[in-house]
Design goal:
By secondary structure, this protein is α/β, with parallel strands linked by helices. The protein has a domain of 201 residues: NAD(P)-binding Rossmann-like Domain (Rossmann fold, 3-Layer(aba) Sandwich). It has twelve helices and twelve strands. Bound molecules: nicotinamide-adenine-dinucleotide. The site of nicotinamide-adenine-dinucleotide (NAD) has 30 residues, from helix 1, helix 4, strand 5 and strand 7.
Length: 340
């Protein structure tokens, strides 16, 4: 297999490449990544000598064409994305550019070069929020933020390219993912780097939102299973059954670090109406292909806490970056005040 992985300098993509290289050393991996704010070469340092790296945008039609041709790519997995909901509330044009238009470029290129498979990595957030029960792959798409809407746009383009051109495309929709190498802006890594820096953490409201958590290794193995065993034209949910309220997750982090609730500052929910109350997915379609998640939530979270404690040299340069500080100021400045 000659595999192009886009967006592998980020969180899930880098963990996916690690898994592929461990699982099947005969796979030849090329990574295309624009190294946007959440993409770092340091995230790929351990496997960089074993892959080919090309820096560039997935919307760059000429470059994508050149990479597919030059490296005789047979399979493509797309992780490249603007991935943070909160940022999409500040400015969402780059979300549509990458998450929707970028997918269109990849689909056209896959068709032109006759790829055996293209797998597009998507999210449970395209379904919107669910009060009871779980989403299946047949549930309607009701995205509530510009981020999730831009992802849904990509998903629908995938569907249309299968129906119209029989491009062998598969879509996976993953749940909230946690684990090592997670850029410190989303709940778990953001809270970890703040707590390890002796700072308080901002909890939105009472932290009652429910998320279904999956360890990044399980998310990556779900994508690998779908790529190898999935049917073209199909969508596969990649979820685990770990539903937790955000405040439960925060309590767990505090207890692991021996801290108490004085480290939590409850702030008015900046997402307001855009904050989905609950996500939950049925993943039996992927399980029917033989996939099973293997990391229990508390064990996985304990390992993740340890990873952030042991890998300050990875996250410290990121949080000292001016653009990172600017985002934290823009989003939390008013609510965190002196705690910023
Ligand atoms: N993190 C989660 O909890 C989660 C859950 C479900 C699905 N997903 C999806 O998984 C995918 C990966 O998410 P992540 O958390 O690893 O994101 P991330 O932000 O950590 O990584 C995104 C990567 O894409 C690169 N990138 C961004 N725009 C690009 C462009 N135009 N061209 C080329 N590269 C570009 C970035 O440089 C970065 O390396 C996304 O599609 C996301 O929607 C994430």
């Amino acid at each position: 297999m000659k595999l192009l992985v886009t967006g592998a300098a980020g969180f899930i993509g880098s963990n996916f490449v690690r898994l592929v290289l461990d699982t099947d050393p005969t796979v030849q991996v090329t990574v295309l990544d624009a190294l946007r704010y959440s993409g770092n070469l340091s995230t790929m340092a351990d496997f960089l000598p074993r892959i080919r790296f090309v820096r560039g945008e997935i919307q760059d039609r000429g470059l994508v064409d050149q990479v597919l041709r030059e490296y005789h790519v047979t399979h493509l997995v797309n992780f490249a994305a603007e991935s943070h909901n909160d940022r999409s509330l500040l400015d969402n044009s780059s979300f549509v550019q990458t998450n929707t238009l970028g997918v269109q470029v990849l689909l056209e290129a896959a068709r032109k070069h006759g790829l055996e498979r293209i797998l597009h990595v998507s999210t449970d957030e395209v379904y919107g929020s669910i009060a009871d029960g779980e989403f299946t792959e047949e549930s309607p798409l009701k995205p509530n933020t510009p981020y999730s809407a831009s992802k849904a746009g990509g998903d629908l383009l995938c569907r249309s390219h299968w129906v119209s051109f029989q491009t062998p495309v598969i879509v996976t929709r993953g749940g909230n993912t946690y684990g090592p190498y997670h850029y410190p802006e989303k709940l778990i890594p953001f809270f970890m780097v703040r707590l390890l820096s002796g700072k308080r953490v901002p909890l939105y409201g009472e932290g009652l939102q429910v998320r279904e958590w999956i360890h990044v290794k399980d998310h990556a193995s779900g994508i690998w299973t779908a790529l190898n065993k999935g049917e073209p034209g199909q969508v596969y949910n990649v979820g685990d059954v770990n539903e937790r309220q955000n405040r439960e997750v925060v309590d767990f982090l505090l207890s692991q670090l021996g801290l108490d609730s004085t480290y939590v500052k409850k702030i008015p929910d900046p997402r307001q109406g855009a904050h989905d109350a609950r996500y939950s997915m049925n993943a039996s379609k992927l399980q029917a292909l033989g996939w099973r998640p293997s990391t229990g939530f508390e064990d996985g979270l304990e390992d993740t806490v340890k990873w952030y404690c042991d890998n300050e040299e990875w996250w410290r340069p990121i949080v000292q970056n001016e653009s990172y500080k600017a985002f934290v100021r823009a989003f939390y400045g008013r609510s965190l005040g002196d705690d910023l």
